[in-house]
Amino acid sequence: MKNTNVKPAEGKLGILCVGLGAVSSTFITGVLMIRKGLGKPVGSITQLAKIRVGKGDDAAYKSISEIVSMPSLDDVVLGAWDIIPDNAFESSMKAEVLRDRDIYPVKEELEKITPMKGVYDPDYVKALDGTWTKDTKATRWELTRQVREDIQRFKQENGCDRVVVVWAASTEIYIPRDSEVHDSIETFEAAMKADDRSHISPSMCYAYAAIAEGAPFIMGAPNTCIDIPAMWQFAEKENVPIAGKDFKTGQTMMKTVLAAAFRTRMLGVNGWFSTNILGNRDGLVLDVPENFKTKEVSKLGVIDTILKGDEYPDLYSDIFHKVRINYYPPRNDDKEGWDNIDIFGWMGYPMQIKVDFLCRDSILAAPLLLDLALFGDLALRAGKSGIQTWLSFYLKSPMHDDGHCPVNDLFQQYTILKNAIREMGGYEADEEID
Ligand SMILES: NC(=O)c1ccc[n+]([C@@H]2O[C@H](COP(=O)([O-])OP(=O)(O)OC[C@H]3O[C@@H](n4cnc5c(N)ncnc54)[C@H](O)[C@@H]3O)[C@@H](O)[C@H]2O)c1
């Protein structure tokens, strides 16, 4: 490994998940099983991918930890908050994502991971009944202080050098950005102190607390949270990296590959209808229209920036794009996502493509959570702060610097990710063909 300015990944890294539901418990159980040599980290770039560094005769393919200092999974300490008291074993069993034989070998370790009480506001997740919560009457400011204390205590009790906080809790109701509150740290803090509950969501309390504690914050759901100027300014001021939002797992990952293929081949698109059936708790929450609205906004944005209707009006100016999620309990976490894409070719002749992705939501999300947490920590050690656009690869609705267009094409995003790692590893960024 070259000498770089990245601080070495020494000591323990705490990964604190907000929400200990299907995604987090699948992630945590997987990490513990992999540590024991009883599972493989399939889907994880940090654990499996090899990236080319150097060009021509100097080219070499190296794993990420050979390019930059990365923590071993043995040095990771796992923790969580939830508004339900189930420990990680109970949560894993209830989620029914993993088979018993992939949970029981780490039962004792899982049972020790009990959630800290969550910041709960029933108005933000109407389908759930939180029973393991911090005082719901406390102001947003006070709750943020309590989350900061939780982080400090977790760090101290577990001997962690660094902590990353990842939101993998339920999707909150849609709240639009309000420039009078969300556009500066001062107005944002004033709203927290005034307990302005309609503008300050529970997720914002966790994000603000994490940043204040110097912990990178990753937003895995589509909530309005860190995608506001107040958070960007705060993260820059505190020198903390942030990334979001919404894990790019099944349908949207496919979308950002297919849309890029159509644009590359100059094939037109008339319509894109995406629907899903999903029966887990996430599906239950998303069945509430105000919560679905948050997801819909996140899912709808992706194809426009790839197809660029303004640049190619003959091909993409009039696309009918619709996304639906239907709660259907028999399928539990085994989501089925259908896409019907109406495309057209030479002389405008129509064609159709049907995609039927029988996926497992949490199986796809768990490696993303791991990579985002480890890369969030890498960004911190590399002295990066604010929005980490190089992590857009993992996100459905990536944040971008004001005035810039987000990159949604999965392969362009991968190039950006690889170049960031090359640079942090002391190599030159490039666009050679791999
Ligand atoms: N699995 C995927 O493919 C995928 C992709 C993108 C985004 N997501 C998002 O990830 C999130 C987690 O998904 P999941 O399937 O694990 O859902 P889940 O319902 O199984 O788990 C969410 C957990 O969050 C808890 N929670 C809710 N509000 C909380 C709060 N304020 N503080 C602490 N805990 C709280 C709930 O009690 C629950 O245990 C959802 O928002 C989902 O939309 C998932």
UniProtKB/TrEMBL annotation:
Signal peptide: none annotated. Residues 250-362 form the Myo-inositol-1-phosphate synthase GAPDH-like domain. The chain crosses the membrane at residues 13-34. Keywords: Membrane, Transmembrane, Transmembrane helix. It comes from the Bacteria. Belongs to the myo-inositol 1-phosphate synthase family. This is Inositol-3-phosphate synthase.
